[in-house]
Automatic annotation (TrEMBL):
Keyword Nucleus set for record: no
Stated family: Belongs to the UDPGP type 1 family.
Organism the protein comes from: Pichia californica
InterPro entries named among the record's database cross-references: Nucleotide-diphossugar_trans, UDP-sugar_pyrophosphorylase, UDPGP_fam
Coiled coil spans: none
UniProt pathway: Nucleotide-sugar biosynthesis; UDP-N-acetyl-alpha-D-glucosamine biosynthesis; UDP-N-acetyl-alpha-D-glucosamine from N-acetyl-alpha-D-glucosamine 1-phosphate: step 1/1
Transmembrane residue ranges: none
Keywords: Nucleotidyltransferase, Transferase
Keyword Transferase part of the UniProt annotation: yes
Name under which the protein is recorded: UDP-N-acetylglucosamine diphosphorylase
Gene Ontology terms describing biological process: UDP-N-acetylglucosamine biosynthetic process
GN (gene name): UAP1
GO molecular function: UDP-N-acetylglucosamine diphosphorylase activity
EC number: 2.7.7.23
Taxonomic placement: Eukaryota, Fungi, Dikarya, Ascomycota, Saccharomycotina
Catalysis performed (reactions): N-acetyl-alpha-D-glucosamine 1-phosphate + UTP + H(+) = UDP-N-acetyl-alpha-D-glucosamine + diphosphate
Amino acid sequence: MSDIKQKYIDAGQAHIFKYWDTLTVTQQDKFIKQLSKIPNPKDFISDVSNAISYSSNISSSKEFTQLPETSFSSTISSTKEQLNEWERKGLELIRQGKVGIILMAGGQGTRLGSDSPKGCYNVGLPSNKSLFQIQIERIIRLETLAGGKNLLTLYIMTSGPTFESTEEFFKINSYFGFNKSQIVFFNQGTLPAVNLDGTKLLLGKDKSSLVESPDGNGGLYKALSDHKILQDFKTKGIEHIHMYCIDNILVKVGDPIFIGYSASNNFDTATKVVRKNDSNEKVGLIVLDKEANVPCVIEYSEISKELSEARDPIDDSLLKLRAANIVNHYYNVEFLQKMIPIWIQSRKYLPYHIAKKKIGCIDIKTGDYIKPTIDNNGIKLEQFIFDVFPSVELCKFGCLEVDREDEFSPLKNAPGAARDTPAMCREKCLERSTRWIKANGGILATPDALVEVSPLVSYGGEGLSDIVSGHVYEDLSVIS
């Protein structure tokens, strides 16, 4: 205990022990346990300082361009034969039990006006299904397409605020018909918050803990190691992973085309992207760092106006840099086993990113708990999952462009916002299934009618012809 305290004092953090003597033994033990999660506080404060410096001086000297053809393919322009080949490969790997799925579900629905995890949210589909139910049912249907049952394990990464409520939601809904033994819940980690100049840790309301927040989607890698998920992959014989985020209502969970594309090309890591059409769209881009000859992601704030508006040299109707990141990735498990210990030991691979926030904490001078309402008073830290991309050899990195209307509609903002709202997600989901109905001979009672197709009936528009051909569907019908 004294060794841990001294490390923090030597790192300039003596203030967090101001109320130490007023704490109970139990509180002290709990506090020390929390502090022990950071083995070297001096290094942590140094890493925070570097993150602040980076955010203030984003380099504009790097030259970015498109990924080479060897690392880029598109489902939009690929032949039907090629897509079928990738799909067959993916389904075979699923049938062999070699595919696992990671669902990033640590987000809360606070921006949506909900106290529940975002995955519990109902966007207003006629079936009233939550995001969790929609995605679980897609997995069930995918197993059917692969020709078996109990083929896929779903690993759900939650956060501290969502862990218990997520497990309870699955339990009270009988796991939505999925085998309970095929679901593994695990928590992402946390990072301490600091003051605005990054020099002081913030003390929590109880004076016996640091203020912490989830460590971002980049915390996945450490969580996989800490919770022995990597070992579970090995035990189960899982060789390929599809990772995605809960908020995308159109996501093709465990997409066999994506798995087949990645595995056929022997990629260590691959990512799905959608086409950026508007140069002003605030979205990260998958690009090539020309100097280092490595793949990376650049945020919209890191790209010049000139480069963001540059047109493709071959097709002037397209932007030059247009591979929009949707946080939908493939990983080769053997590669993860090798690289995760390296990634989590160095800020070179997983640097901290800062977000200035209004953070409730103890005012050390007065001992009062403060919760700012106007000005930011601190920094929350997070890590980004794609920061490890430059550590992947270019020849082992893949990027698959998919149709935005078919695969991407994120739930980000509350009703009434300009974009990415529940109503927009609902509309995009219904529009896609209605296209499937029309393509398979179904008839709409009115030209603007929208029809919902249960994921248990069709994963991607398949198997509908015998069900819908010649049938007339009223607006907001549900095919289940």
